[in-house]
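Design job #97: recover the sequence.
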């Protein structure tokens, strides 16, 4: 399929661009589908722009081309595949954006992009499965941690990251069905979990600089280090499954509904097999 990125908004609706973005992530309907799928994984794992992923995917060419910049020749630091995928994805709300600093850059700061879970939500919507705001926040809480994303890539990189998320979550569901929650201790207490699942993801990540009530401030201070550890530190006791158990313990109805939706996605021909 030939795509002229500059003409996307003139020729395609928002829904069509979203669907095209999903096709690129999944790697379907494209001659370079495998490259698109691998590129999507890079943007799922870390914050990147077109240049940084070119450096990873084409290291020798990057080193050769970057040497031409001081003399003004400036050979390009990208490929047609990267231009296409990155160009389409940046025309959706599929990315979280952060400014990154490097003293070697002319302007110092540059925007970098990382996939959020909107691709999953759009993918599900096309299959008539709609997640509530609470369910979205729960999925973000489970999938947001860096160690989880790295685990997904290590174990599911042969498929796309949307399918990987579904398979990973459903593995929790199957295990929980065989081992129902009876625990009394929790990684996060009920008040903090209640706070998290009723907030959007941006607030979960940045809420510590937002004006809060004294009660909220005390709760956030109490959980600050634990939340930081949860988001960044791998653990042998699988903290995110422990949190999944706690969510089932405190919010059984919400979790039963979410489990059902993820199972329906799985059984709709998404993954090839369950690990």
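Job complete. Output follows.
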């Amino acid at each position: 399929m030939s795509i002229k990125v500059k003409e996307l908004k003139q020729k395609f609706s928002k829904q069509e661009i979203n669907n095209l973005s999903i096709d690129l992530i999944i790697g379907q309907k494209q001659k370079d589908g495998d490259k698109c799928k691998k590129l999507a994984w890079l943007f799922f794992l870390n914050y990147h722009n077109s240049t940084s992923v070119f450096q990873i995917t084409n290291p020798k060419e990057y080193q050769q081309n970057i040497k031409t910049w001081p003399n003004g020749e400036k050979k390009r630091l990208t490929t047609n595949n990267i231009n296409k995928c990155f160009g389409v994805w940046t025309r959706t709300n599929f990315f979280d954006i952060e400014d990154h600093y490097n003293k070697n850059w002319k302007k110092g700061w540059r925007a970098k992009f990382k996939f959020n879970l909107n691709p999953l939500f759009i993918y599900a919507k096309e299959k008539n499965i709609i997640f509530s705001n609470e369910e979205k926040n729960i999925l973000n809480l489970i999938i947001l941690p860096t160690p989880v994303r790295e685990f997904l890539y290590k174990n599911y990189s042969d498929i796309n990251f949307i399918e990987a998320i579904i398979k990973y979550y459903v593995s929790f569901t199957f295990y929980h069905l065989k081992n129902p929650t009876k625990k009394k201790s929790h990684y996060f207490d009920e008040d903090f979990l209640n706070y998290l699942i009723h907030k959007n993801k941006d607030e979960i990540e940045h809420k510590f600089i937002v004006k809060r009530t004294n009660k909220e401030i005390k709760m956030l201070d109490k959980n600050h280090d634990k939340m930081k550890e949860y988001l960044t530190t791998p653990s042998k006791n699988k903290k995110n499954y422990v949190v999944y158990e706690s969510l089932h313990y405190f919010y059984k109805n919400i979790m039963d509904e979410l489990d059902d939706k993820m199972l329906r996605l799985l059984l709709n021909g998404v993954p090839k097999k369950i690990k």
